[in-house]
Amino acid sequence: MKSLIFDIDGTVLDSMHIWIEPMDKIFAKYNFKLSDLPKERKGEIEALPFEAMCEFIAENVACDMSKDEVIKYFVDNLENAYRNELLPKDGAVDFIKDLKDAGYKISVASSTDYVYLEPALKRIGIYDCFDFFATPDITKMKKSDDSYWKYSIDKHKKNPEDIVLFDDALYAIKASKKSGIKTIGVKDFPWNENEWEHIKNEADTYTDRISAISIDEIESL
């Protein structure tokens, strides 16, 4: 039986808008376009943990703001959204519960800190389905780092080819595949629409939503 890793934002939770929209606003204010960067550089920036992203914005985009001011700009929206508002993607809750009931070991791999994910996953009723969490505040690593994926591989106590990742981000699919993990690309339009063809080419398989994947498909990877 495979072990499973789930990204959360854009894969399990319909949450990318609370990150992208305020980021787009601050980028637009300072005439900065992430889409203008080379694909690899764009992926590196998207992989940054929350505080590192705020530091990047303060140093490279909103140079008249301090890192703490950028953090406050985001945090005012994030805490309430994860605790009270964000909804799961279609079929995600039942899918993850069914996988847990079937005996799968399941973990989280997210660039969002555990402090935000915990209340959201408890609210929608799947927190206890996850055996462990790999988040920036727990691992002190970035999701684009080889060491980040080794952390999850070691915790699962499986060969990497016996672990399957569900993720909507191209950089995460590429980084995990480099470590030998099998990957399922997840559509999250419009947020990953520009990368979707690359995701389809890079991932071992892909899906419109996680609940559309069968156990047979997981085990065949």
From TrEMBL:
GO terms for molecular function: phosphoglycolate phosphatase activity. GO terms for cellular component: cytosol. It comes from the Bacteria. GO terms for biological process: DNA repair. It holds the Pfam family HAD_2. InterPro entries: HAD-like_hydrolase_sf (IPR050155), HAD-like_sf (IPR036412), HAD-SF_hydro_IA (IPR006439), HAD_2 (IPR041492), HAD_sf (IPR023214), PGP-like_dom2 (IPR023198). Keywords: Hydrolase. NCBIfam families: HAD-SF-IA-v3 (TIGR01509). This is HAD hydrolase, family IA, variant 3. It comes from Anaerococcus prevotii ACS-065-V-Col13.
